[in-house]
Write a sequence for this structure.
C-alpha cells in the first residue's frame, strides 16, 4: 500500500511540474492574448481562464458558479477560451461568440448562451445574438474571418497542451482544474493564486 501511495505522489508531483512548465512557456498566450475575450476586472490581480463549449451541460451548470465567483471577488479577471469540441454546432457558436466581441457584446451573448437550456445550434445562436442586440449580418461576415478560426485553433492547441481534453477546464494560477467545480473549490484556488502571485 505504501509503495502505491509513493507512486501516486510521485505522479502528482511530476504532473505539477509539467503543468508549471507549460504554464510558464505558454503563459502569454494563456493569460494575455489580446484576441481573447476578458470579463470581470480586466485589471484584476488574479486571472481565471475557462475553456468551455456552449453545448457542454457541465459548462452551463458551472456558469452560475463563475458568476458567483466574479460577484464575490472584485479582483478577479476572467479569460474566456472558446473550446468547441462537441461538433459543428459548437464551432458555429464559438465563432459567433468571438465575432460578438467585435461588436462589444461578448458578455451579453456569452451569458445568454450559458443560460440557454436547449442545444446550441444555429437557430439558438442567432436568437441569442439578436437578443444581445448584435447586428446579425455583420456577425455572419465576421464569423467567416480567418482570424476567428485561427483563434479557435489556438485555443484547442493550448487546451491540449495543458491536457484539458474535455469541458469545462480551468487554469487558476499554477493550478489546472479539469472538469466542473463548485464555488468553494474555485474560490480556494483563487485565494491560493493570489497568495502565490505567479502571473
Amino acid at each position: 500500500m505504501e509503495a502505491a501511495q509513493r507512486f501516486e505522489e510521485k505522479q502528482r508531483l511530476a504532473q505539477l511540474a509539467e503543468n508549471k512548465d507549460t504554464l510558464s512557456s505558454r503563459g502569454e498566450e494563456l493569460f494575455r492574448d489580446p484576441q481573447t475575450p476578458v470579463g470581470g476586472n480586466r485589471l484584476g490581480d488574479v486571472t481565471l481562464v475557462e475553456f468551455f463549449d456552449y453545448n457542454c451541460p457541465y459548462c452551463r451548470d458551472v456558469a452560475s458558479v463563475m458568476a458567483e465567483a466574479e460577484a464575490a471577488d472584485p479582483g478577479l479577471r476572467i479569460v474566456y477560451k472558446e473550446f468547441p469540441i462537441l461538433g459543428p454546432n459548437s464551432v458555429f457558436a464559438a465563432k459567433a461568440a468571438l465575432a460578438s466581441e467585435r461588436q462589444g457584446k461578448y458578455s451579453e451573448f456569452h451569458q445568454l448562451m450559458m443560460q440557454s437550456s436547449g442545444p446550441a445550434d444555429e437557430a439558438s445562436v442567432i436568437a441569442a445574438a439578436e437578443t444581445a442586440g448584435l447586428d446579425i449580418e455583420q456577425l455572419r461576415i465576421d464569423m467567416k474571418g480567418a482570424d476567428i478560426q485561427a483563434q479557435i485553433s489556438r485555443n484547442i492547441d493550448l487546451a491540449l497542451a495543458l491536457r484539458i481534453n474535455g469541458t469545462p477546464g480551468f487554469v487558476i494560477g499554477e493550478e489546472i482544474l479539469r472538469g466542473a467545480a463548485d464555488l468553494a473549490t474555485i474560490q480556494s484556488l483563487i485565494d491560493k493564486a493570489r497568495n502565490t502571485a505567479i502571473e
User: Anything to note?
Assistant: The chain is about 60% helix and 15% strand. Residues 2-86+145-196 form a domain with the Glutaredoxin fold (CATH 3.40.30.10). The helical segments are 2-32, 57-72, 88-102, 106-115, 122-131, 136-143, 146-161, 183-196. The chain has a mean pLDDT of 92.
